[in-house]
Design brief:
eight-stranded parallel sheet, TIM Barrel, eight-stranded mixed sheet, 16 helices, 16 strands, hydrolase, 2 domains, alpha/beta, HutI, EC 3.5.2.7, Urease, subunit C, domain 1, Metal-dep_hydrolase_composite
């Protein structure tokens, strides 16, 4: 066993409900505290002095200066395996060009597909690991990563193999998701429905055979795949044994209902979700995941987080880090800005980037600092946990721990 401390505050996030609104007075905050670690798990969080007395011969890892400690964060929606960049898209969008005009001039998702296809596995691995390390530096130790810039058998498998290989180079937990249904590739001769069938018959069996991903995603939108064909695809993917998640209600409403109907683990985006669908979503087991980075990148409205929480939904926040609509990759900044616009409590934000976002990935062994949970946690050099959101991302993580060891 090992004792780490003393911390000015430990915010455990223990004993909070999975769904619905939270107030800051529900937070368990232990002052002048220490974390007891046993076999890569949390044993307890309690008074540092009391733990020292209780275990007089224990190994102590001393924390210098005033620091606070939180569970490490989970980013449950990213696209960080990609080639090239789309800085020109961003500049054109800000200059007033439409999505269609940008796509027609060689930008958009197809631009990322071409760059990713051109990149070797070695190049993709290098840049993906750089982005993983950036996320770890923020205190994020669990990272979902999607394919979706390959859009054929060879290149989708290439992306997923890169993500699998990246896991051997990092202590962070990587959760791969197959997003071959990102959009119909321009070089596919056939309808959208035929392309979705191609994914079911040609891509997903190989993904399963090589154990490259256990999750499947689809972008339901006018510019990608229509609701009915998407629903049929998701049900077939589910029959193959995959867990389901959905890019839902980004520009038009309705697809969050499909996510709930097929039993998706999460419905992500939701910027266009209407009130009656919020109620439908909030009563389900599907996690409603906001992606404020996409709202900031595209100049679109934010996910109606306040309404989702008030309706009793399971609400998470993720970065959507991708080369097009959400290039920032700074989860704390995005979550802090979302909190300002949607009037979210600090407890709601912290829950949304820890145990609630981990639940969206079916990882219920982390996200709180209580007995038996994975000893992933982050420290900040401050005397008050509220400073993290107050500084909107400019207060950087001091130390990040995975399985009780500083990384």
């Amino acid at each position: 066993m090992k004792l780490i401390g003393p911390f000015k505050q430990i915010v455990t996030l223990a004993n909070l409900p999975l769904r619905g609104k939270l107030s800051d007075d529900q937070l368990e905050i232990i002052n002048d505290s220490g974390l007891l670690i046993k076999e890569e798990k949390i044993e307890t969080a309690a008074s540092f002095q009391d733990l020292k007395k209780q275990f007089p011969n224990i190994e102590i890892e001393n924390i210098e200066g005033e620091q606070i400690c939180l569970p490490a964060f989970t980013d449950s929606h990213t696209h960080i395996c990609f080639g090239g960049n789309r800085a020109n898209d961003f500049a054109m969008r800000n200059a007033g060009k439409t999505y269609l005009e940008i796509a027609e001039s060689g930008g958009g998702i197809w631009s990322s597909v071409l760059h990713t296809r051109e990149a070797s596995e070695e190049e993709l691995l290098k840049t993906t690991l750089e982005r993983i390390n950036f996320l770890i530096s923020q205190g994020i130790t669990t990272i979902e990563i999607k394919s979706g810039y390959g859009l054929d058998v060879e290149n989708e498998l290439k992306m997923l193999r890169v993500i699998k290989k990246a896991q051997t180079f990092t202590k962070a937990t990587l959760v791969p998701t197959c997003l071959s249904a990102h959009l119909k590739p321009r070089d596919f001769e056939g309808s959208s429905e035929e392309y979705l069938n191609y994914i079911i018959t040609e891509i997903l069996p190989k993904v399963k055979e090589e154990n490259l991903a256990k999750r499947v995603d689809i972008f339901i939108e006018k510019s990608a795949f229509l609701p009915e064909e998407s629903k049929a695809f998701l049900l077939k993917a589910k029959e193959l044994g995959f867990e389901i998640t959905v890019h839902a209600d980004q520009f038009t409403s309705g697809s969050s209902r499909i996510a709930v109907e097929v039993g998706a683990k999460s419905a992500d985006h939701l910027e266009a979700t209407i009130d009656e669908d919020i109620q439908f979503l909030a009563k389900s087991e599907t996690v409603a995941t906001a992606l404020p980075g996409a709202s900031l990148g595209l100049g679109e409205k934010f996910t109606p987080a306040r309404k989702i929480l008030d309706a009793g939904g399971i609400f998470a926040i993720a970065s959507d880090w991708n080369p097009g609509s959400a290039p920032m990759g700074n989860l704390i900044t995005q979550a802090s800005i979302l909190a300002t616009f949607e009037k979210l409590s600090t407890a709601e934000v912290l829950a949304g980037i820890t145990f609630r976002s981990a639940f969206a990935l079916s990882l219920e062994d982390r996200g709180t600092l209580e007995k038996g949970k994975k000893a992933d946690f982050v420290t900040f050099k401050t005397d008050n946990f509220q400073s993290i959101l107050y500084h909107q991302g400019s207060l950087k993580a001091q130390s990040v721990y995975i399985d009780g060891e500083k990384v």
